[in-house]
Amino acid sequence: MAERPKSSRSRTRFHSSMPIEKPTRLSDLRIQHASLVLTALRLNGPLSRAQLARQIGLSQPTVSAIVEELLHLDLVVEKGEGPSTGGRRPTLLGLGGERLYVLAMDLGGTRMKMGLVNLQGRLLASQAVPTPGSGRNGTTRLDPQQILEGVVAHLKRFMDEVAVPKDRILALGLGLPGVTDPERGIVTLAPALGWVDMPVVKVMEDLLGMPVFVENDVNAAALAEQRYGQGRRMRNFVFVALGTGVGAGLILEGRLYRGHANAAGEVGYLAIDRDWIRAHTSTRTSPGDAFGCWESLSAAPAIERMARELLSQHERADASILQSTELTAEAVMDAAAQGDPVGRAVLDQLAENLALGLTNIVVLLDPEAIILGGGVSLAGDLLRDAVQDRLVQTSPFVPELLISELGEQAGLLGAAAVAVEGIVPLTIARGGHKGMSREVMDDS
Fold this sequence. Notes:
The chain is an alpha/beta fold. Helices cover 40% and strands 19% of the residues.
């Protein structure tokens, strides 16, 4: 097995690792410089102005001008004085935004979660309710406009309940299961919601009266890992969500990679089993009309199916605690943790299936780490260690394999990250957050 170079986890030097694209307008340059300052403070703060200048490779006068603007916008705050190196004690700076907020929504086919998150990533309030128009089996549907009207009604009630001035809530971030086009604000395809080419951003902005930013829910979770979670100091990692399906969010060279048609990360369709492909694709009219190979063999329904099959044929099935338990993926993983023979057999097969798909991702992208999230990942070290043992057998090199630390907050923090990624540049470009629209006016 080839030995993989170990990555450095020292303080990030932004002038070498975060190249600035050539700006097209003065405001673009200002936003990019401000973004470097905010990222340095998020990762390494508190820092003095001189320390910031050294880390991001800009002159001290430029950094001082950026800092003054960010202080005015409450995006940066002074955090006291640092130690003297012979002259005046420097003023230390840290991330602001403690009293600036975004709304976050994790919208699913049957349930939706709403949250209020400040710009530092602290979830202050949350609420979960049924998605408007969803019946008990998730099949009863309103039309898309009616669904969004119901969603906004819930959001407005939620805002009334939280003790925050509405002019301090800057935007809404929306994460949902489907292919999204964030640039145009359109959900191209979301089968769980019955949406095709839905202009969700325009509709919700008209109803809600604030900027709205939309993203695929797994991409949003990857952004949450980059901003708040295990990926904070990484420029290349893959977030893999393991739930009712399997999907991935790709952070490459510090940026979310969406692909040509905004469909990058649909890794549930990785072909890891020739027999499965032959058995399940011969009569299909389109690969998009059903679950893909990898998720069919590795997601929560696959765990439950494997357990049912083994309970009917395993030589020690009678001794399994799963005989008297409702068969859920969580129950199967709990049984495996207790040494149950059927639970362990399922875990072994799951680890092999996951390792096969992860190997394809690793050899193609060479990420620094793979972060496992979603409901199945709550099995924690039990799952990670089993997958790691298989991955060293199938991949010529093995990145760090991590379990997400965001847990049940991942969806809301992901939606919040989408809102923050969108609204902070607008705030800087406009020189303030009150009365903001999505149209950026270049006042420089």
